[in-house]
Amino acid sequence: MTATDGPRSLRLAELDAHTFAAWLRDGSGTVLVPVGALEQHGPHLPLGTDAILSSRIAEAAAEATGSLVAQPVSYGYKSQQKSGGGNHLPGTVSLDAATLIGLTRNLVASLLRQGVRNVVFVNGHYENYQFLYEGIDLALADLGLRDGDGPAVLLLSYWDYVSEETLRTVYPEGFPGWDIEHGGVLETSLMLHLEPDLVDLGRAVDHPPAALPRFDRLPVVPGRTPASGCLSAPAGSDATKGGLLFRQVTGDLARDIAAELGGTPG
Ligand SMILES: [Zn+2]
To answer: What InterPro entries is this protein classified in (predicted)?
Structure first.
């Protein structure tokens, strides 16, 4: 999309209603919804990291496919100790599952009812996924839509787009696993590439990966979360790795959206 052949912004919040209505008529009809959380990410990353990253990734994919990006969902489901350090930590402000399901259900129904053809949820907070899925499913049932009826909703978490080849470059000493990538090399490198002023590497703490049990225990045992709040250390993060991650993920995501839903190939 360029300034001459489409809306002047790809962010819905920055468009007027008449421009949006014209885009519904003439545009790709696909709206991306970034989803994140307000969650502690250690001493070196901001609380809004998940929504910042999903928004920037969604915007790049939207630009490549002639799509638009809705306001991000900036709060998420409760941080869990084995994937986010835990909901007990200061700075983590979360939604109950029923709230996130209801919010997702409302967003899908509202977007599709006014003529959006396809919706793509770009998730940036691990714990959200199944509740987004449920909200989408309930909205499609509310609207009476079944297989092959036309409108489609895609749901993805952006890290599922990181290729094996990229992983080998970003983690030359071996990938610790997605479950403990919280405040670690992936998020820190992406933030160093996209929002370096919001990262303070001087406050980053080096420590071994969190050793967490196979079970979830509630209430959590707070001492099982490393004192930094990160589940793996950000040591080895840099903006070059962030740039590689960003380009590879957004390129593959744009290609998927174009292939699945139509629109300008990325
Ligand atoms: Zn995160």
So the answer is: Creatininase (IPR031034), Creatininase-like_sf (IPR024087), Creatininase/forma_Hydrolase (IPR003785)
Of 50, 59, 63, 181, which residue is the catalytic one?
Answer: 50
In a domain, 3, yes or no: no
Banded pLDDT at 148 (limits 50, 70, 90): confident
Distance 193 CA to ligand 1 centre (A): 15
Please identify which of the residues 59, 63, 125, 193 carries the catalytic annotation: 125
* Number of neighbours of residue 147 by Cβ within 10 angstroms: 6
Domains of the chain: total: 1
Query: Averaged over 51-63, what is the pLDDT?
Result: 98
Q: In the prediction, which pLDDT does 266 show?
A: 44
Measured in angstroms, how far is the CA atom of residue 19 from the centroid of ligand 1? 34
Answer whether residue 262 is part of any domain. no
Question: Which residues surround the ion ligand 1 when the cut-off is CB under 5 Å?
Answer: 49-50
Asked if 39 is an active-site residue, the reply is yes
> Cα separation of 201 and 168, whole Å?
23
Say which CATH number the domain at 162 has. Answer: 3.40.50.10310
Beta bridge partners of 73: 35
